[in-house]
């Protein structure tokens, strides 16, 4: 009986959040161990299906750097990086598209569908979803791009029809040239374009840390100005920088709240969305 009461209590605690988020759009940046560990993959897929069934429009954005590297090495190519960004020549761009669109994207779609959902995979090339241009900077990174514009029409249509949309982070310019774009960056711009109420970044850390050397010093909530200060003062780990910048992009575009949570925790999405305490670091809009 105690166990049944606990289940009921959990559902009652979740009810106001279900009421609050139902009918709204949540963008999830999917990455880290949650993409590679089979148990965590199933956990995330179940979370996404449940969110859709309680009326939340779900958009998933993914990258796939390790898989791209793995495929390049299998083909005898040595990946090169400059300031954390993959140098992407024409041959590498073909591999990026093959891995992200034909491999990782469809694998995520299959996981969600196997968990009882209805998922559709798209790339930024579909219906001119992501217009891009060559990323500017001192180093020539080849076909590495940055977001110029997001056309959310196809996503709005699919989520409105009850589908979970899975987006791979490739865009094209006006001439049809494809570009490899950082998935964290895409998630921030996309969350703005679809007027998401939340952007949730799944990573392999518990959140932003007050002391980078202490994994238990998670900051539960930050203001926008405090987050900007952390970037300026270098208190953010290199892997977290694009995620935090993406959160700030989304907040500047009107997204209500952003969250950096630990994707290594089973059912992390449900814990964040449907409990009083939540997990990780939240940065609310002002």
Q: What do these coordinates show?
A:
The chain has 286 residues and is α/β, with parallel strands linked by helices. The protein has a domain at 25-203 and 255-268: Carbamate kinase. It is 42% helix and 21% strand. The strands form four sheets. Strands 5-8-2-1-11-12-13 form a seven-stranded mixed beta sheet, with helices on both faces. A two-stranded antiparallel sheet has the order 3-4. Strands 6-7 form a two-stranded antiparallel sheet. β3 and β4 (85-86) form a beta hairpin. The protein is globular. The termini are far apart. The model has no long low-confidence stretch (mean pLDDT 91).
Average pLDDT metric = 91
CATH homologous superfamily title of the domain at 25-203 and 255-268: Acetylglutamate kinase-like
Largest sheet: 7 strands, mixed
What is the fold named in CATH at topology level of the domain at 25-203 and 255-268? Carbamate kinase
Run of helices and strands = HEHEHEEHEEEHEEEHEHHEHE
In which order are the strands of the major sheet placed? 5-8-2-1-11-12-13
Distance between the termini: 44 Å
* 3D shape: globular
Unreliable sequence segments = none
Count every helix, treating DSSP H or I runs of 4 or more residues as helices: 9
Number of E strands:
13
Structural class: alpha/beta
Supply Rg. 19 Å
Helical proportion?
40-55%
| CATH architecture annotation of the domain at 25-203 and 255-268 | 3-Layer(aba) Sandwich
């Amino acid at each position: 009986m105690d166990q049944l009461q606990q289940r009921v209590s959990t559902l009652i605690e979740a009810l106001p959040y279900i009421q609050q988020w139902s009918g709204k759009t949540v963008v999830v940046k999917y990455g880290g161990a949650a993409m590679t560990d089979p148990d965590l993959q199933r956990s995330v897929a179940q979370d996404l299906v449940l969110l859709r069934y309680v009326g939340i429009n779900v958009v998933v954005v993914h990258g796939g750097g390790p898989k791209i590297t793995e495929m390049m090495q299998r083909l005898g190519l040595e990946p090169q990086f400059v300031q954390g960004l993959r140098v992407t020549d024409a041959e590498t761009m073909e591999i990026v598209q093959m891995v992200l669109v034909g491999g990782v994207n469809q694998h995520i779609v299959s996981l969600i569908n196997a968990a009882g959902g209805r998922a559709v995979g798209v790339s930024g090339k579909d219906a001119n979803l992501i217009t891009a241009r060559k990323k500017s900077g001192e180093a020539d990174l080849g076909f590495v791009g940055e977001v110029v514009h997001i056309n959310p029409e196809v996503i709005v249509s699919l989520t409105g029809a009850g589908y979970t949309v899975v987006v791979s982070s490739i865009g094209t310019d006006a001439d049809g040239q494809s570009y490899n774009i950082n998935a964290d960056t895409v998630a921030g711009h996309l969350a703005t374009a679809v007027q998401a109420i939340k952007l949730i970044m799944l990573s392999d850390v518990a959140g932003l840390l007050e002391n980078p050397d202490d994994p238990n010093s998670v900051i539960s909530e930050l203001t926008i100005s405090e987050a900007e200060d952390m970037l300026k003062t270098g208190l953010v780990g290199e892997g977290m920088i694009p995620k935090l910048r993406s959160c700030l992009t989304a907040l500047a575009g009107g997204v209500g709240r952003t969250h950096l949570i630990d994707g290594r925790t089973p059912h992390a999405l449900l814990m964040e969305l449907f409990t009083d305490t939540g997990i990780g670091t939240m940065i609310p809009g002002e």
